[in-house]
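Practice problem 4.
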């Protein structure tokens, strides 16, 4: 690997354990509109995809979907923040990385990302945050990571991207960046780790 310059992260499942938050959020929408709570299969899908993709998947009636989207815009994300658990070792790792390395987020989250970072006082810990709203195509397309490469003016192998799903893996592969699979041995990766603390082993000597 070329000399590392940028360490980038997915959000859900990497920076935070968001399973409970996502479950509560989407189940609230489903239940509000008279639908049953998510199945395991449905949850596996929404955990990896954008808000719009997830809503279209859960609410397949187009007219009904418009009502769901309109209602969602009136909702506050605040009640669901309490279910998010920051990943162990994240803050110490970010302190160790900066300012020697640039740090970034590439996530399929949309308009909730800013609030999440603010709530956990992390907004000043990242040089760049790219959400699904900032690109034409969300992951698994490489657009978010390509935007990151352009912003930092670096080569793909100078970037380490930490993700936990196959959409992260596919995006990293398409962009040519080094991929670290976090707590998921079922996906292909350059490296597999169980703790964010293990990122320290990839830092330049």
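Answer key:
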């Amino acid at each position: 690997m070329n000399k590392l310059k940028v360490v980038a992260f997915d959000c859900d499942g990497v920076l935070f354990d968001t399973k409970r938050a996502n479950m509560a959020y989407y189940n609230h929408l489903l239940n509000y509109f008279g639908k049953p709570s998510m199945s395991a299969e449905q949850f596996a899908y929404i955990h990896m995809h954008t808000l719009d993709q997830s809503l279209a998947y859960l609410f397949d009636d187009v007219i009904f979907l418009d009502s769901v989207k309109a209602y969602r815009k009136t909702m506050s994300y605040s009640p669901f923040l309490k279910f998010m658990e920051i990943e162990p070792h994240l803050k110490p790792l970010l302190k160790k990385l900066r300012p020697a390395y640039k740090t970034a987020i590439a996530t399929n989250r949309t308009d909730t990302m800013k609030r999440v970072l603010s709530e956990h006082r992390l907004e000043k810990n990242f040089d760049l945050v790219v959400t699904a709203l900032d690109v034409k195509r969300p992951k698994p397309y490489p657009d978010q990571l390509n935007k990151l490469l352009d912003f930092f003016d670096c080569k793909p192998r100078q970037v380490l991207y930490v993700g936990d799903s196959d959409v992260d893996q596919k995006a990293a592969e398409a962009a040519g960046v080094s991929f670290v699979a976090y707590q998921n041995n079922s996906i292909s990766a350059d490296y597999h780790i169980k703790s964010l603390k293990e990122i320290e082993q990839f830092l330049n000597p």
